[in-house]
User: What shape does this take?
Amino acid sequence: QVQLVESGGGLVQAGGSLRLSCAASGSIFSINTMAWYRQAPGKQRELVAAMTNGGTTNYGDSVKGRFSISRDNARNTVYLQMNSLKPEDTAVYYCYAFVRTPHWGQGTQVTVSS
Assistant: This one.
C-alpha cells in the first residue's frame, strides 16, 4: 500500500507563485516516476510535470518556463514550484507516483484569480 499526501494548494492572484509538495509513504522500495497532473472543470486530466528517479524531466507545453518539478528521493517527496501563475492554471492538482503500479494523491485545489 502506497499513500500520497499533497499540500500547498490555495488561492493566489495572477502572477503569483505557489509550491506544491507530495510525500509518498507506505510499502516503497523505490519510486520510478513522480509527477503532477491537473484537472480543470470540464476538462481531461493533463500532465503538468514529471520527473524520473534519474532526474529526467518532462513538462506540459502550457507550463514550460513557469513551473519547475523537483524531487527529494531520500524523503520520497516531489515538489512543484509554480511561478507566473495564470487564471487558466486553476485546477485540482494531483500527485502521481509509479511504485510497481500507478498511484494517485487525493488532489489539492489551486485557484488563480485575475
Q: What stands out?
A: The chain is about 0% helix and 55% strand. Residues 11 and 55 are 30 Å apart (CA to CA). The longest strand covers residues 18-26. The radius of gyration is 13 Å.
